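User: Thanks for the earlier help. One more: GNAT family N-acetyltransferase. Can you show the sequence and predicted structure together?

Assistant: Of course, both are below.
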Amino acid sequence: MSLILRLCNEKDIDIVYKMANDSTVRENAFSGDAIPYDDHCRWYADSLANVDRIMYIAEERNVIVGQIRLDKQNNKAIISYSVEKNNRKKGYGKQILRSIKREAMLNGIVMLEGLVKKRNVASRKAFVHNGFIESEEENYFRYIYLLKSGDNIEIDKNSK
Ligand SMILES: CC(C)(COP(=O)(O)OP(=O)(O)OC[C@H]1O[C@@H](n2cnc3c(N)ncnc32)[C@H](O)[C@@H]1OP(=O)(O)O)[C@@H](O)C(=O)NCCC(=O)NCCS
């Protein structure tokens, strides 16, 4: 697998919208309503301009397979991510979380956090697979990862 994360740009507005409005993504989001396109356009422009929000597209051989976003709060970042629906269950979710560690380190982040609805088994497994520590809250699981030296080394593109 040769997955890369690249920064989102203006041209990605529609693919990010399509992934954000996917029915499974909405079900697993904490704000579950469908997103009107105009709202998305405002949000996307604000997000590109926001220095505390870093958005990536995940690609393999120039095919977009998912997206991941870091919302920085000082030296911590909250993760939001998804895999494009036709590419789920192929290991991309695990690979995207693995790849984001390097990007986070390069951006001065020391701690990553993900909040996952209890029924979202795939995401829970993807976080645990990547060494995040799980704790149970009332309505979700919290996953924490403290970045460590070595996480900034470029991943072997041939390994999952
Ligand atoms: C969550 C999501 C990103 C996982 O991505 P993915 O590429 O499908 O996941 P992977 O293929 O890496 O699989 C991760 C693990 O979950 C398992 N899995 C995948 N889909 C599953 C499903 N629907 N039900 C149960 N387990 C599932 C895989 O078998 C794998 O388990 P393993 O480590 O024991 O082999 C993807 O399902 C998605 O985009 N969902 C909608 C958005 C979302 O939920 N985002 C996360 C919000 S916290």
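User: Great, one quick takeaway?

Assistant: The helical segments are 13-20, 23-28, 37-49, 92-106, 121-129.
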